[in-house]
């Protein structure tokens, strides 16, 4: 009986380790997808900022304000 219980306990530890590995993998995947999306958003933001600054320096503008 002790051997059966010991074997069952080892199997449970193995299953728990696999579950934790799956959770870690899913969290890592979520972080990777989020970082990729955030990186694209940051890149777009800096591109727009650069265009705005360039237009301000050259005197061209796409705004609708009167400038006064």
3D structure, described in words:
- It comes from Cupriavidus plantarum.
- There is one protein chain.
- This protein has one helix at residues 2-58.
- The termini are far apart.
- The protein has one domain (1-57).
- With 68 residues, it is mainly alpha-helical.
- The model has no long low-confidence stretch (mean pLDDT 82).
Structural class: mainly alpha
Helicity level, as a percent range?
over 70%
Q: Determine the mean pLDDT.
A: 82
What composes the largest sheet?
none
Number of helices: 1
N→C terminal distance: 90 Å
Number of strands: 0
The H/E string reads H
Strand content: under 5%
How many domains?
A: 1
Uncertain regions spanning at least 5 consecutive residues: none
Molecular shape: rod-shaped
Pfam families: Flp_Fap
Organism: Cupriavidus plantarum
Protein name: Pilus assembly protein Flp/PilA
Concise overview:
This protein has one helix and no strands. With 68 residues, it is mainly alpha-helical. The longest helix has 57 residues, at 2-58.
Q: Helix and strand layout, with pairings?
A:
Layout: H1 2-58
Descriptive key words:
68 residues, mainly alpha, 0% strand, Flp_Fap, Pilus assembly protein Flp/PilA
């Amino acid at each position: 009986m002790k051997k059966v219980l010991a074997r069952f306990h080892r199997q449970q530890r193995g299953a728990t380790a696999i579950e934790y590995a799956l959770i870690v993998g899913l969290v890592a995947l979520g972080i990777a997808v989020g970082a990729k999306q955030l990186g694209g958003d940051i890149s777009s933001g800096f591109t727009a900022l650069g265009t705005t600054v360039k237009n301000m320096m050259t005197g061209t503008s796409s705004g609708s304000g009167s400038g006064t």
